[in-house]
């Protein structure tokens, strides 16, 4: 059996999923404010499927989407991690994904979690690059990704395949971070 990677930061545990994470995950993914830059809200069944896919990915690869838990309260607050990229990329890459409950915003927790994920990606996993995408109008994601050192490839912008061209989230920007550029 493959040993799963668990990560920690000063305030967070990036851990395996627990069955009791389903209810807070479903509440979070049904919140229009949390999901405002996503193509759709997620149902409880969608969230259960996400947890199953994440658990299977960990079994196969040791990493994936980690559940985020605050150390101080032991509360589940969201997720952050790496998933197979479905974006237009010339090379196979892993995509940085995250979502955090609104009451946790503005504390730097996503940045802290994403840094731990990128440290793992480029250190322990030895990945050559990580990608991410954000709707062009998603300023919080743009600030996060640029704060992590990721570079926008505006020439590689693309239309979200699930959204009509006139939809405000249709235009997506691809971001990349190469291992050699991490922490420079």
What does this 3D model show about the protein?
This protein is α+β, with helices and mostly antiparallel strands and 184 residues long. It has one domain: Aminopeptidase, CATH 3.40.630. Helix content is 27%, strand content 28%. It contains four helices and eight strands. An eight-stranded mixed beta sheet has the order 1-2-3-4-5-6-8-7, sandwiched between helices. A hairpin with a 3-residue loop joins strand 1 and strand 2. The longest helix has 18 residues. It is globular, with a radius of gyration of 16 Å.
CATH topology, anyone? Aminopeptidase
The radius of gyration is 16 Å
- Tell me what portion of residues adopts beta-strand conformation: 25-35%
Total of domains: 1
Order of strands, main sheet, comes to 1-2-3-4-5-6-8-7
Count the DSSP helices.
Answer: 4
| C-alpha geometry | globular
CATH superfamily: Gcn5-related N-acetyltransferase (GNAT)
Protein name: N-acetyltransferase
Pfam families: Acetyltransf_3
Domain N-acetyltransferase: 11-151
InterPro entries: Acyl_CoA_acyltransferase, GNAT_dom, N-acetyltransferase
């Amino acid at each position: 059996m493959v040993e799963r990677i668990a990560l920690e930061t000063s305030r967070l545990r990036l851990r395996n999923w627990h069955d009791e994470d389903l209810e807070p995950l479903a509440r979070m993914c049904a919140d229009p404010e949390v999901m405002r830059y996503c193509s759709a809200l997620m149902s409880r069944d969608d969230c259960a499927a996400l947890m199953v896919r994440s658990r299977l990915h960990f079994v196969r690869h040791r990493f994936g989407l980690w559940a985020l838990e605050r150390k101080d309260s032991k509360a589940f607050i969201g997720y952050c991690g790496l998933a197979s990229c479905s974006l237009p990329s010339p090379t196979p890459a892993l995509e940085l994904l995250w979502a955090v409950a609104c009451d946790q915003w503005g504390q730097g927790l996503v940045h802290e979690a994403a840094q731990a994920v990128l440290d793992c990606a480029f250190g322990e996993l030895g990945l050559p690059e990580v990608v991410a995408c954000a709707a062009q109008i998603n300023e919080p994601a743009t600030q996060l990704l640029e704060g992590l050192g990721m570079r926008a490839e505006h020439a590689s912008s693309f239309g979200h395949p699930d959204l009509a061209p006139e939809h405000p989230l249709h235009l997506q920007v691809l971001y990349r971070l190469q291992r050699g550029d991490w922490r420079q």
